[in-house]
Amino acid sequence: MHLTLRIWRQQSAPVPGRFITYQVQDVTPDMSFLEMLDALNEDLLSREEPPVAFEHDCREGICGSCGFLINGVAHGGQRGTTVCQLSMRFFKEGDSLTLEPWRARAFPVIRDLIVNRSAFDRILQAGGFISAPTGSAPDANAILVPKEAADTAFDAAACIGCGACVAACPNAAAMLFTSAKITHLNSLPQGQPQRDQRTLSMVVAMANEGFGSCTNHGECEAVCPKEIPLEFIGKMNRDLMRAVWRRHREPLVIPGIVQHPLHEDAGTEEGRS
Amino acid sequence: MLEARIPSGPIEQQWDKCRSEMKLVNPANRRKHSIIVVGAGLAGAAAAATLGQQGYHVHCFSYHDTPRRAHSIAAQGGINAAKNYRNDGDSIVRLFHDTVKGGDFRAREANVYRLAQISVNIIDQCVAQGVPFAREYGGLLDTRSFGGVQVQRTFYARGQTGQQLLLGAYQALEEQVAAGTVTMHIRSELLDVVIVNGRARGIVTRDLVTGHIDCHAADVVVLATGGYSNVFYLSTNAKASNCTAIWRAHRRGALCGNPCFTQIHPTCIPLSSEHQSKLTLMSESLRNDGRVWVPKKKGETRAAKDIPENERDYYLESRYPSFGNLVPRDVASRNAKEVCDEGRGVGPHGQGVYLDFAEAIHRLGLETVREKYGNLFDIYQRITGEDAYTVPMRIYPAPHYTMGGLWVDYHLMSTIPGLFVGGEANFSDHGANRLGASALMQGLADGYFILPYTVPDYLASTALDPVDVSHAAFTATKAEVKERIEALVAVKGKRSPDSFHRELGKMMWDHCGMARSDAGLRKALARIPELREEFWHNLRIVGGDDELNQTLEKANRISDFLELAELMCRDALDRTESCGGHFRVESHTPEGEAQRDDAHFSYTAAWEWQGSGQAPALHKEPLTFEYVPLSQRSYK
Q1: Could you tell me if the ipTM is greater than 0.90?
Q2: What is the per-residue pLDDT for A47?
Q3: Is A154 in Cβ contact with B550 (below 8 Å)?
Q4: Distance between terminal CA atoms of chain B?
């Protein structure tokens, strides 16, 4: 089959980018989407043009490296599928596809379809862990975890950190990502001692990175390749309320947000303290 | 030359003895020591996090954009531990026996025993971190069985155990980054190791975004950079997995142990098109419930469902009645190859065997099967377009893991003092064949529980001169690295890096894959230098070395595969016995199983680099088996 691809080309962060149109011939249905791009890149190389830079690694949908928008949809629109697992069977002869990188202030473009997602690591650093220094653990079966809790924790921990949720959100919110990690750790008995601190810190970190807030569009859930459910955002908000309530002896202002110059309503936060 | 530093005394006391004799670093002095950890997969992230917790200043390097992308993430099945929670006769000794035997008696007994001992601590550690392992309704941990063993000692988190264990290590690592003990260097690829006065004192890296070549000095260097199955081009490894770090260290003097020992995993989705960029693993756990079969008749054209029961050959069950579908990987792979070579393979190219769940669905019900293996069936469906709940899966072996790697002593130190190697990157504990669910165990054992003892011991017992990046050794190494990168860009030939990689991979698969012959290996050994020559004269890279250039990254990695491939073939040619995954067609039992030659080959082959175009020198570390008596492996 033959396809027309409009691809975002941007040599580096400071250089303005633009769309360039390419024709791709001889695409077969058993190719994956990235194998189709491999073929395009081999062709570009043979013509001494720079290949399209895109991130990918495991090509099994688990490492979270890959991801870009295809016709405006993160990972291309097949439910529960990363773009590396998207098969060309999903497309038809003559399709015209626009490929562009994740678009979010917190994810600056590095080159072509590659963006910088280090903001996710910094959210994790704020509290996305259970402090258990090596060697200090009790016997594994000393901690009973109800199967339901383990299952919920797993459903949340399935997040691969690809950033599709942010790219799909009209507000570029990272709430699905953040709530997945909070739900994973807060669902487990091991996660209880740091539960409140974790929730507060991660929510603050998320805001400080310049991500937006959730206004219940649900686009994140729709594109999530691991089908992380929207309800985890609700869980996170409940945990946030719990954390704020239980820490009532301290100022109710979440530290960090007030000072953030990007928030227009920063002034009103003062009144709450 | 090869001093393995195995502690004396009974095997069950060796690790304790070793630890109690180690020198310690005072907590106040730890922050004065800097440690470089290259790689942030299970072994690297676990080591960096733990050394950070102890108070050392750690610099951790990854070529990914975040440590969570490391290929450990793709491990599916599980992690072994001798917990005996099932009360089914498991013990440390049993895990030790299984691993030595599974590795076809080509691993070091002392290391394997330690691995089995530590396995129980790993599960404790991971649970404490919040790894969501599968649970029983009572809240206790669930386990399942895996190939090559007869107890249920494999802990798992659905079909994504590697992901969950890596996230645990990654979270511990990020906690240390926040605490300031670990500095993460992302999108940063090691291009050389710097040796000062005979000791590893730093590395040279390339920033993959800007192309800057940077020097980093430290007191000690740990490599945890994974395996080299991508030498076959098509493998289950992630696309970027490569041998550059261990190969550059090898060229600086680190010996390479058993490079030809590679694992061909029996349950992968067969190759379907010439464009295919990688092969996808279907977890071995599927063999717990799936039944492997091919038609009895050659050239069968009927669909699976139309072949009656009595015309099916459940060849693993009939040939290996006591282990059945759960024979070790090397045995399962070799048998699949045999039946396909006989012309009884299934699927478009006849390169596949059925893995059938009809009986399991009948016995357990569709829902139970879905809960156990749902994500794997989904992956299969996406790639092949077939529904494995209604038609049998088709599987075929694919390169998956490399038991070979840099030779290390009991302390996991290579032959370069101050250069430690952990995880799949070292030649380690699996001998000639790794058992399922043992890679995660070894990576985490090295990272959490061995390196954090042996690296400080090295620091405490070594007089280290202050060295920084202005030292002449750094300047010289950096110049060599720059020259090599510039040379790649300057070739300006006609062929893409991938075309060289595909050609090399095909050659390695044909001649150094599941079956290896004297003639085939010699053919490859003649052809590889020619291909390398062409690579350096006809390679095409577009763009420069001062920008993000994925073609250059690939070419750089392939340049090392082209050298490593030759060593693998040489090692395979030299070892005329068959053992584990190394099957020399000249050496088999009357039943067609691998025939070891203990009189001549009971050793680890450790190869020393002698310079470009020079034959490497072979050193031998003799292997003795005091605790697991040498025997012909039998899974019948």
Answers
A1: yes
A2: 97
A3: no
A4: 40
